[in-house]
Specification:
The complex is a heterodimer. By secondary structure, chain A is mostly helical. Chain A has one domain. Helices cover 70% and strands 0% of the residues of chain A. Chain A is built from 3 helices and no strands. In chain A, helix 1 packs antiparallel against helix 2. Chain A is flat. Chain A starts with 10 loop residues before the first helix and ends with a helix. By secondary structure, chain B is mainly alpha-helical. Chain B has a single domain, classed as Cytochrome c oxidase-like, subunit I domain (Cytochrome C Oxidase, Chain A, Up-down Bundle). Helix content of chain B is 67%, strand content 1%. In chain B, strands 1-2 form a two-stranded antiparallel sheet. In chain B, helix 4 runs parallel beside helix 14. The radius of gyration of chain B is 23 Å and the shape is globular. The relative contact order of chain B is 0.11. The chains are: A mainly alpha, B mainly alpha. Chains A and B meet through helix 3 of A and helix 9 and helix 11 of B. The structure holds protoporphyrin IX containing FE and copper (II) ion (CU). The site of protoporphyrin IX containing FE has 24 residues of chain B, from helix 9, helix 11, helix 12 and helix 14.
């Protein structure tokens, strides 16, 4: 990608990412004390997913890079969710 | 092409790089040499695993103890399966012909990351060594290539190296996949639009995505099994609160897509060969491309058909059976395209064509038996019987194996600058084909009668089928020896050829030198029309 302009992120954006990750980590520890049955897993996964999203978007530059990378990433996540969905045909109806 | 100074036309085989001799091969980043490294490695391990297979068939020629007892037999099918699946057919055509021909067919000088490419081969070798170390340290593993929990962490035999080695082999596969995706996106020659790309690169592209996205799942699964065995973490062990069916889910979430890693490139090679030997444009180019992508996509959602009798929920059974029937459609589209390509063509009966046509024949039998297995009621009857063994040998050996042989006989003169003996090649094919059918067809019947797989012994009523099958195995091995000896011998002593296009192909690899030079092209080619334009 030498011919394309490199995006340089500022320290502020890095610090913001770090802050968000720390807050969310604290949150995922905190929710373990709530009794939500099988939804505990769901909440934990949602928080982890958000963290991964933040890392991908800002820290790993998906937002500033060629669109095709964002498209691929989203496609892969959709595929992964579909696989999970099909898996739960088993686990939800046992 | 202009005949400039001869020194510019040194073939990659004779090219002198930084290192000489063996080092010049195992440290070479030339995609062609890397491809050949894979070829030679596979040849060695295929021979070993084939001998194990033959020994198993000799054991089964009569009921009871013939040449080995139960424990040895269990280890044999395990090691046979691990080598054949993880070391031979999963890397398979992409590692050999993908490496060798992908850059040439899209008009590039090498893959996008040549060093990574060499690293993939090294990781592959390290993985193999780790797998093999299980043979010498402790007892041979006896779990089958599927490593099902909870047995895989209970057995006293040495499964750890096998698990860990398979884990390492996965990385090799992922790196090759990444390399190919980037190569195809970024390095196509001027004018080579997506829909002017030949079909073999297309199938490599679809395969590469499966390699990248599915392989990590097996990596994690094998690693969890290692943790379970070593540290007693209870993921799959029911006595620790784990779920053994979860193991099967995770294993097949990789391993069903993996069967498409095995077969898609083979389908691509067949799609290259048939138009050339029919002197006709391929029928339905776009349908073949789209069905490849469809197979890659739908193939992610059918893994449950390996688990119909494992105790999944009823809804999951229906869903997976339905999806399994869907995935057969794109394969059938391809068969239709191939047959239509040959229809009214002027057929040229040569060795690659024989392998390609017999591929279609055995692939159809394999595919239809897959549908038999995919319907819920029949599956209960034939699951874990010899019927399954017949199914996947027809489709993996008959599919991937035959297409590999077709591809090898097709591209051989280009790769080695020598020609094999055609008479022996055809004889070898005929003996092999006859042996193959005699070996595997009776297994369908045996499975229907109820003979289970993975036992060293059987009831007397299965004797006839087993005798026929075992004799077939011997015949097939004879055929394989003829084929392989002919190829190996000819690489040294075969008739020299520098003809660029011996078969009259229309794709780019037939425009470069035979054998190709280090960078394939003096000047990058420009592409003006679709492939296979026979007028
Ligand atoms: C036409 C599409 C296909 C269908 C419908 C199909 C269906 C099935 C089903 C239902 C089973 C499970 C049988 C059982 O254990 O009860 C099976 C096993 C298997 N199939 Fe296929 N299959 C298809 C194509 C393929 C292809 C293309 C390959 C590989 C190139 C393949 C390789 C295998 C293997 C290796 C097994 C056995 C795994 C084991 O238990 O060791 N299949 N197939
Ligand atoms: Cu499958």
């Amino acid at each position: 990608m030498s011919e394309e302009k490199q995006h340089i992120s500022s320290y502020t954006s890095h610090i913001l990412v770090l802050g968000a990750l720390l807050v969310l980590t604290a949150a995922s520890v905190a929710v373990t004390s709530l009794e939500m049955g099988k939804y505990n897993t769901l909440v934990a996964m949602l928080i982890a997913g958000t963290k991964a999203g933040i890392v991908l978007t800002w820290f790993m530059h998906l937002k500033f890079d060629n669109k095709i990378f964002a498209i691929f990433t989203v496609a892969v996540i959709v595929l992964f969710l579909l696989v999970l969905y099909v898996t739960f045909f088993d686990y939800s109806y046992r | 092409m202009s005949e400039t100074i001869t020194s510019k036309h040194v073939s990659f085989l004779e090219h002198k790089g930084k290192y000489k001799g063996l080092l010049g091969w195992i440290l070479s980043t030339d995609h062609k040499r890397v491809g050949l490294l894979y070829l030679y490695t596979m040849l060695v391990f295929f021979s070993i695993a084939a001998i194990l297979g033959l020994l198993m068939k000799i054991q089964l020629i009569a009921p009871g103890y013939t040449i080995m007892g139960p424990q040895t037999y269990n280890s044999m099918f395990t090691v046979h399966g691990i080598i054949m699946i993880f070391i031979i057919v999963v890397p398979g055509l992409p590692a050999v012909f993908g490496n060798f021909f992908l850059p040439i067919m899209i008009g590039a000088k090498d893959v996008a990351f040549p060093k990574l490419n060499l690293a993939s081969w090294w990781i592959y070798i390290i993985g193999i060594l780790v797998v093999l170390s299980s043979q010498f340290v402790g007892g041979w593993p006896d779990t089958g290539w599927t490593f099902y929990a909870p047995y895989s962490f209970r057995t006293p035999t040495n499964v750890l190296p096998a698990l860990f080695g398979a884990f390492i082999l996965g990385f090799s596969s992922i790196l090759t996949g990444i390399n190919f995706v980037v190569t195809i996106h970024r390095m196509r020659a001027p004018g080579m639009t997506w829909f002017r790309m030949p079909l073999f690169p297309w199938t490599l592209y679809a395969t590469a995505w499966i390699q990248i996205l599915a392989t990590p799942v097996i990596g994690i699964t094998l690693l969890l099994t290692v943790m379970e065995r070593v540290l007693g973490v209870g993921v799959f062990d029911p006595t620790l609160g784990g779920d053994p069916i979860l193991y099967q889910h995770l294993f097949w979430i990789y391993s069903h897509p993996a069967v498409y890693i095995m077969i898609l490139p083979g389908m691509g090679a067949i799609s290259e060969i048939l138009p050339v030997f029919s002197r006709k444009r391929i029928y339905g180019y776009k349908a073949i491309v789209l069905s490849s992508l469809a197979i890659a996509f739908v193939g992610y959602f059918v893994w449950g058909h390996h688990m119909f009798t494992s105790g999944m929920s009823g809804r999951a059974l229906y869903a997976f059976s339905f999806l399994t029937f869907i995935v057969a459609i794109p394969s059938a589209i391809k068969v239709f395209n191939w047959v239509a390509t040959m229809h009214k063509g002027s057929l040229n009966f040569q060795t690659p064509f024989y392998w390609a046509v017999s591929f279609i024949f055995v692939f159809m039998i394999g595919g239809f038996s897959g549908l038999t297995l995919g319907s819920l009621a029949t599956n209960v009857h034939v699951h874990d019987t010899h019927f399954v063994v017949a199914h996947f040998h027809f489709i993996v050996f008959g599919g991937t194996g035959y297409s590999f042989m077709a591809a090898l006989h097709y591209w051989y003169p280009k790769m080695f600058g020598r020609m094999y003996d055609r008479g022996w090649a055809n004889t070898g094919w005929a003996v092999f084909f006859g042996g193959f059918l005699t070996l595997y067809l009776p297994m369908f019947g045996l499975g229907m009668q109820g003979m289970p797989r993975r036992y060293y012994d059987y009831l007397p009523e299965f004797h006839t089928g087993n005798i026929i099958s075992s004799l077939g195995a011997i015949l097939m091995i004879v055929g394989a020896i003829i084929v392989i000896v002919n190829l190996v011998r000819s690489a040294r002593y075969g008739e020299k050829t520098s003809e660029k296009n011996p078969w009259g192909g229309k794709t780019l690899e037939w425009e470069t030198d035979t054998p190709p030079t280090l960078e394939n092209w003096e000047d990058l080619p420009t592409v003006e029309e679709r492939p296979y334009e026979y007028k």
